Amino acid sequence: MAYAAVASLVQTLEYVLKFSHLVFQIKIKRAEVYNKRVAEVIKLLEATSNESEYHLEQAIDILDSPKGKRAIRYQYDSGWLLSQYQLPRREGRVLSVEMLEMEEQKKNILEEIDSFQAGLNVFFGVTGPHIIRGDARNYFLWQLVRTLVGEQRLGRNQLKKKIVYFYKVTRDTTNLCKELQSLLIILDNPSNKCLDILKSIQDVAYRARDIFDLRIIKNQVEPALTYCLRVRKGDPEGKSSFEERVNRIFGLEERVNCLFGANAVKFLQKTLENVRSIKNNIKEINSEELTVEDLQLGSASLDGSHQAQGSTNQEDAVVGLDDDTRRITEKLTRPPPFQLEILTIVGMGGIGKTTLARKVFGHCSIVLHFHCRAWVTASQVYEVKDLLFSLLCSVSEPTYEKHEKSKEDIGEELYRKLKGRTYLIVMDDLWSIKAWNAVQGYLPDDRKGSRIILTSRSIITELKPEEKPYHFMRLLDRDHSWELLEKVVFGRKSCPHDLVDVGKQIADKCQGLPLAIVVVAGLLLRTMRRLDCWQDIADSVRSFMRNDPTNCLDILALSYKKLPNRLKACWLYLGAFPEDCDIEVQKLVHLWVAEGFLDPEPIADMEQVAEDYLDDLIGRNLVSVGKRNFDGKVKTCRLHDFLRELCVREAEKEKFMYVTPRGAQGFRTGIRDMYRLSIHFDSITDYSVPSFRHAISFMCFSLGYGFSPDLLLLELQLKLLRVLDIYFLHFDHFPIQVLEMVHLRYIAFNVTYELPPSMSQLRNLQTILIRGPWESPILSLEYWSMPSLRHFHCSVVSHLKKPTIGRKSFDRLFAPEYLLSLSTISFSSCTREVFNSMPQLKKLGICETEKDYITGVSSECLANLHLLCKLDTLKCSFFRETSKTRDLCRFSLPYKLKKLTLSWSYLPWGDMASFANLGHLTVLKLKNFAFQGPRWELNEGAFGCLKSLLIESTDLVHWEATSTDHFPCLEHLLLRSCKSLEEIPYGIGELPTLSLLEVHYCSKSAEDSAKEFGGQIEDLKVVTRSDI
């Protein structure tokens, strides 16, 4: 956790340093006259080294005197200075030389001024260069120094002390920040001998961060920053004079100064000493002879292909289950019994129950035998409505969202869809008979040979005698254990001869448990392929599972302990999510970024860094792939029950996070010092709530009944939060406590109310996720004044305010520099002003409202899309209550667009040419009559880069694509609910790049043509689903 703690502290220090720029900016407002003398002071200040604070004070004394003014006028005559002030020769010489060097290097000084101004521009969101020229730079710097500590209020001696003190604080903060950044490099892969030191680093980093965060809150410096920005963009009160605004800013400035209070220098220097001492200790240890442990952790030295290889090998590696698969498939396909038959696969966690069930589920004889198949995961905690809806989605396409129907309505529709058909249903990870009983009533028993597969860790005694055929899983024998390990580590290649014996030892010590073998194999994937390295792993892995299966956690913990430090916090964070949960990768990435787990350097690419971290964890077999996007990227990921249990255990042990057990009736004692809290209460009887004053993350997935969410937030006293995920809590009004969480970077919540404009003052917010049932809300957030905002998503169509910026020169001044994704906004929000305020936008979701359609603004607004030069993903849905053909001649898309989704646009197929020429388009989804008409004839050379194509719900009958010039790169084609399509064009089947063809709920003739392609083309995988 040391890496995550230090990375987080670095971000806090960088944030605090911004306030020194704020002080300068505020004091600019107070300057009224020009005085070149003070400009020279700041030049000397800039030129003074860390060891010459005494000379700095001397210079301020000299320059502040009448004689000093004459010295400046006579070009810093060193002899004159010595004679007039009788300075010691050495000190006078140093001061004189420094002044002369400044005069000779005036050009460099002016460049430094430009650099300083550029830093201010970045802080205030200016996107382009804004350089001050000529004498204006001297004027700019003079204002900074003249009012640096309020010269009008303080005497000369106080001014001198304040300048030097402020200089020392800024210097030490900057040095500490640099030391910590260099420490991150060392911490990424330290020697195992450094593990005792890591706890010290974590404690120092957390303590320092808490002190800064609390000072920011205590002194209310955020309002000062917000007010200063409001003054920059225009008069906030409308009638107040410039002098009134200046005085108010000066009053707010005092709060900022408190950040650098009397003990700041001592605290910073002490922290700096601790960090340097720790860093030197680590360097001394790492300078010793290279050990086997170091080689094991050196993932950077491994072939990069190994990282991508791990997850692929795991998906392909299934051994020792052929006999089990044969016996189960024979039972499932035998003549129909007198009633619905249930088969239960029983075995300990990690033994491969789900793997076996999936292998049976996808077996060719099963696919041919059953009319429809459905899979659902029950888990320890479940909602009957979720189970039923998941089953319904497996056998048909619901025309509504889950929240639009009751549990009974969904169950009845499921019953109708299954009635008269032979079906197979798998209920995976069943912990209680109650889940099966809740679903069973909606499954028809027509004696047509339908079957049910349950997987469970134990025998379900409550089943009826006729429902008790069990299949008991067995541990792998030695040969199969080694076969599995070899497959995961080497794929289709063989293990080098010199590693075979030690590899078999490692496999044997996993005691035949597939999960343990796969996880240890993930560790070997990141280990040098040398005999001494593998032997060390063999010595570390011991058999804990002969009598107590739960000791498997100790074997799994070995892979966790061998993780690079940059990945440990990321992996433990997965334990916050519910058991058997499909974790959305996009959400997980946003959370990791907000927590500060990532390398703080590449700001613009933080999301990509997070995705690389996740790929690394998947490659180590510590995380499994859940679902993939249409283009093949990981959409959701999962954590095995045992691995989640390990996450929760280790997270609590290291005070990283506390996860409430499902059965707990309240908070237990001894958890006040936890930094993260994840709540999973089914019910609660003990309403006493401890305060979590140090907590920086709060996630609530279930609160139970009888507890007020408002009271919970109030009692917890979560002042330092960076992450607030209350998606599953329901408030009748906006929780005002949120407005006090000035460090907040991520917020996700469910609302039935309008958001207050004051939420814009949470200037550190990076991600805002809103789910609400209200219709077309107007979001009054001043998003353009939130410089850290990166992702803004609302589940319902929202209207954005236009940026209200006074002067034209400031049009982009307050643009969120890193705003990357935005959804879902109305067409009428797509104005030139809005798009100009988000120049970095990459992903956009827009939806046409009824008002947009009636007023006819859609075409005009869509013409503004070309302003988003960096947009690569667009989801565009039109008003669905009309089927009129659209005329979108002004639909102007950015040329670099890579992914496009259209819904309900009712365009004629002839307009497809406008999209076919997008040179970078790789993914195209056409949903819900995006195009209409009976015939689509492609032009030659169309869609030169397209890799994935989805056509869903259309009246297309004839699709002509006879030339191989069409779709030269197409890899994946999915046709869904194309009821009128007669056949798939023959030219599609001839595409050499096509690897996956899916036909779901289409006409029988289209399905037959797809199967014909599958029989003729060797490397083409064909998947069909039918409700016939």
UniProtKB/TrEMBL annotation:
Cellular component terms (Gene Ontology): cytoplasm
Biological processes, Gene Ontology terms: defense response to virus; plant-type hypersensitive response
Location within or outside the cell: Cytoplasm
Pfam hit, one: WHD_DRP
Disease resistance R13L4/SHOC-2-like LRR domain sequence ranges: 717-1021
Cross-referenced InterPro entries: Apaf_helical, Disease_R_plants, LRR_dom_sf, LRR_R13L4/SHOC2-like, NB-ARC, P-loop_NTPase, WH-like_DNA-bd_sf, WHD_DRP
Segments forming domain NB-ARC: 323-494
GO molecular function: ADP binding; ATP binding
Main localization of the protein described in the UniProt heading: cytoplasm
All copies of domain Disease resistance protein winged helix, residue ranges: 577-646
Function according to Swiss-Prot or TrEMBL: Confers resistance to late blight (Phytophthora infestans) races carrying the avirulence gene Avr1. Resistance proteins guard the plant against pathogens that contain an appropriate avirulence protein via an indirect interaction with this avirulence protein. That triggers a defense system including the hypersensitive response, which restricts the pathogen growth.
Annotated family: Belongs to the disease resistance NB-LRR family.
Full protein name: Late blight resistance protein homolog R1A-3
The organism of origin for this protein: Coffea arabica (Arabian coffee)
Gene: LOC113731065
